[in-house]
Amino acid sequence: MPTNVNIQNGTDTSLSVNTSVTPALSDSYWGIDTDTAPGNQKTAILWMDRDIGITDGDTWVFTTSFTFDGVQIQLLESLTGTAVSSDIKIRIVAGTHDSGWSEDNTSVEFSGGDGANYQINGTFFLNGSYDDVTYSLISI
């Protein structure tokens, strides 16, 4: 059963994103939906299988990176295999601001290169057996 990762881009700027996983994981167990998150809409970025291909006790980190208003952003998911499934945590890094790993919703505020203030919220949403994750980028 998959978890889907989305970006709700609440700005007018289209985001060019780059997504990877470490260590390497077969593309049978995860995939990239797109490398662009258009402005003012929600976009599916990637999916990961939560119970097939994820070995008990091993951890994979999925990273979606982009630059926004001169600030390097990383949206991360950590998937650790269990005996029957997997556990997920999320983390948001925006320049020098870091939410740290969280099993719950989390957020980070940061200032862009032009001095404007922004916030990225990471939110879990139940979708079938597993939570999906949506990161929302907004001006504050």
Question: Please, could you describe this protein's structure?
Answer:
- Helices cover 0% and strands 63% of the residues.
- With 140 residues, the protein is mostly beta strands.
- The strands form 3 sheets. A 6-stranded mixed β-sheet has the order 4-6-1-13-12-11, with no helix packed on it. Strands 3-7-8-9-10 form a 5-stranded antiparallel β-sheet, with no helix packed on it. A two-stranded antiparallel ribbon has the order 2-5.
- A hairpin with a 2-residue loop joins strand 9 (86-94) and strand 10 (97-98).
- The protein is elongated.
- The mean pLDDT is 95.
Helical fraction = under 10%
Largest sheet: 6 strands, mixed
Shape descriptor? elongated
Helix segment tally: 0
Which strands sit side by side, in order, in the main sheet?
A: 4-6-1-13-12-11
Strand content: over 45%
Task: Tell me the structural class.
Answer: mainly beta
From the N-terminal CA to the C-terminal CA, the straight-line distance is 35 Å
Radius of gyration: 15 Å
Weakly predicted, low-confidence segments: none
DSSP strand count = 13
Question: Secondary-structure element sequence?
Answer: EEEEEEEEEEEEE
Mean of pLDDT: 95
Main attributes?
mainly beta; six-stranded mixed sheet; five-stranded antiparallel sheet
